[in-house]
């Protein structure tokens, strides 16, 4: 789906890492680690390990929560924000190209297959 590039921050991500970034991206503000774990349907230690991995890649940062000093909030770095916006733009271009080349029935079929594959 994407042109492979050594400069692409998202190029070396697992699907799971990418899913975490998308959940963080759609949250209004920095998301609490507990809420991130709940959203991803994993334990808090599992979410913590993933956040540490994404931090090492420079894609997220953890910050102390103003309301509760024991709690941490996670937000995307500028690097991740820029990469996700570019990824979205590329997917949009590809989706429009598919719409031009496939019939409505073929698009429906593709949509159904993608839903099955992403379960």
From TrEMBL:
<dbReference type="InterPro" id="IPR022689">
    <property type="entry name" value="Iron_dep_repressor"/>
</dbReference>
<dbReference type="GO" id="GO:0003700">
    <property type="term" value="F:DNA-binding transcription factor activity"/>
</dbReference>
<dbReference type="InterPro" id="IPR039422">
    <property type="entry name" value="MarR/SlyA-like"/>
</dbReference>
<dbReference type="Pfam" id="PF01047">
    <property type="entry name" value="MarR"/>
</dbReference>
<dbReference type="GO" id="GO:0006950">
    <property type="term" value="P:response to stress"/>
</dbReference>
<dbReference type="InterPro" id="IPR036390">
    <property type="entry name" value="WH_DNA-bd_sf"/>
</dbReference>
<dbReference type="InterPro" id="IPR036388">
    <property type="entry name" value="WH-like_DNA-bd_sf"/>
</dbReference>
<dbReference type="GO" id="GO:0046914">
    <property type="term" value="F:transition metal ion binding"/>
</dbReference>
<dbReference type="InterPro" id="IPR000835">
    <property type="entry name" value="HTH_MarR-typ"/>
</dbReference>
<feature type="domain" description="HTH marR-type">
    <location>
        <begin position="1"/>
        <end position="119"/>
    </location>
</feature>
<protein>
    <submittedName>
        <fullName>MarR family transcriptional regulator</fullName>
    </submittedName>
</protein>
């Amino acid at each position: 789906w994407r042109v492979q590039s050594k400069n692409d921050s998202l190029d070396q991500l697992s699907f799971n890492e990418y899913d975490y970034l998308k959940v963080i991206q759609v949250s209004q503000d920095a998301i609490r680690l507990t809420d991130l774990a709940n959203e991803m349907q994993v334990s808090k230690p599992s979410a913590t390990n993933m956040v540490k991995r994404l931090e090492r890649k420079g894609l997220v940062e953890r910050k102390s929560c103003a309301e509760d000093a024991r709690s941490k909030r996670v937000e995307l770095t500028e690097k991740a924000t820029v990469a996700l916006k570019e990824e979205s733009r590329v997917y949009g271009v590809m989706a429009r190209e598919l719409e031009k080349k496939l019939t409505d029935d073929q698009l429906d079929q593709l949509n159904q297959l993608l839903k099955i594959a992403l379960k």
